[in-house]
UniProtKB/TrEMBL annotation:
Alphabetical keyword list: Cell inner membrane, Cell membrane, Membrane, Transmembrane, Transmembrane helix, Transport
GO cellular component, one term: plasma membrane
Residue intervals passing through the bilayer: 15-42, 54-74, 86-109, 121-141
Membrane topology, as annotated: Multi-pass membrane protein
InterPro entries documented for this protein: Sulf_transp_TsuA/YedE
Main location: membrane
Subcellular location: Cell inner membrane
Domain of life, per lineage: Bacteria
A UniProt-annotated Pfam family: Sulf_transp
Protein name per Swiss-Prot or TrEMBL: Uncharacterized protein
Family: Belongs to the TsuA/YedE (TC 9.B.102) family.
UniProt key word Membrane: yes
Length: 143
């Protein structure tokens, strides 16, 4: 499996995530944890909670349409695994988010920026787990 190196696109995406996190903290005093935002959208505590979560999620999923409007091409998305494996991965991530009390955006972006010891440990755990998984898939299993 070949990995494409995209430093400018990655930098742009990182800047947008950071900007969104800062804006959410500045305007609403909330942490930008994507899975927590999605969970609160599915089971909202109040109407104002639902509104900002819906707006943020709409912005997250509208990126491909904006890309198409600018470039005239639909973005190419390649997922090199089967649908059952994708579903299994989603389940594993969901369990990790639940037991880890947050996701990479909440801990890795916002928590690390606040120098939260819990977030630093969580992010190091995410990254170590990712490195081990990639090594096993690419070099042990041979995927």
């Amino acid at each position: 499996m070949e990995t494409e190196f995209t430093p400018l696109a990655s930098l742009g995406g990182g800047l947008l995530i950071g900007l969104a996190a800062v804006m959410l903290m500045t305007t609403l005093g909330r942490i930008f944890g994507a899975t927590g935002i999605l969970a609160g959208f599915i089971q909202p505590d109040s109407s104002p909670e639902f509104s900002w979560r819906a707006a943020l999620l709409a912005g997250m999923v509208s990126g491909p349409a904006l890309y198409m409007a600018i470039t005239g091409n639909w973005p190419t998305i390649e997922v090199p695994v089967s649908t059952p494996l994708l579903a299994l991965g989603g389940l594993i991530v969901g369990l990790g988010v639940t037991y880890g009390a947050g996701c990479t955006s909440g801990h890795g972006v916002c928590g690390m920026a606040r120098l939260s010891p819990r977030s630093i440990v969580a992010t190091l755990t995410f990254m170590a787990g990712t490195a081990v998984t990639v090594f096993v898939i690419r070099h042990v299993i041979g995927g």
